[in-house]
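Quarterly update from the structural biology core.
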Amino acid sequence: MSIQVIQPGLLSLLQDAGRYGAHNIGLTTGGPLDRQAFEWANRLLGNQLDACAIEVSFGGLQLQVQADTYIAVAGATMPLQIDGVDMDLWTTHRVKAGSKISLAYAQHGTRTYVAVAGGIQTPSSFGSRSTVVREKIGGLNGGKLVDHDILDCMPTKQLQRYTLPPNLRPQYASHVRLKVVLGYQHALFDRPTKQLFFSSTYTMTDRADRMGMRLEGPNVACGTSQMLSEGICHGAIQVPADGQPIVLLNDRQTIGGYPKIGSMMSRDTARLAQLRPGNTVEFCAVDIHDAHNLNALAAHRFQNTQLAAIDG
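Predicted structure, tokenized:
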């Protein structure tokens, strides 16, 4: 079976869990910016959590299904319609051959995930289906979805339907407080500069994409503006010479030479990725042990959250 793209929206990309083990040949990770929403969309369908889905940025996606299957949409609040009827997000929906799926533009948050039973079946590139447009790899021809693209899927006649109770669904705010683990280069930043960074509010600029989010606020430059290039981790917070932080995300370059004050917790980069220009952030420091514990607790909650079954 297949799904046809009628209208791709502003930016829709095929993403699985990401491309790992290829930094040595210069390929970045890719994968979903909001992994939490991505995994919920797959779990609602009983998919493997790394199954390929569509990451929709800002909305406007329209699809037509060519055979009976099931879908789930999780993430930013983009009003969903199936054949012109309003449908709930964070819920498994049955769709019949010929059905039209439409996502309006985001009301809260910026990115949502459209998963299909069994996952979207595209060729794998270097161990992943994730699209990285800069590298022209993954997805369909290494690019964003366009009109008339055909997405291969597995036909599914019968599947238990579920919903995530509303009180358990993430809320996407316009101001967030994000956790940062100080990196080994934090000593390059003097104590007043670090205190300024952790006590200030920064604004999301329009210079934000899947590579990284550039923030605007108090200048926190250190005495060293450039360094020898080195590998860069997900969530690294670079501070170039202008003193304005850049949080590096999934499609970041694999190496870089700006000093880094620390690295944001991976679960908090998902919250950052749901912001839009003009939204604001604050940072708080946590040590590596607290970060591990918080990640373990979040994973435990996800695994033990009971979905509500839907009859029919």
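The chain has a mean pLDDT of 95.
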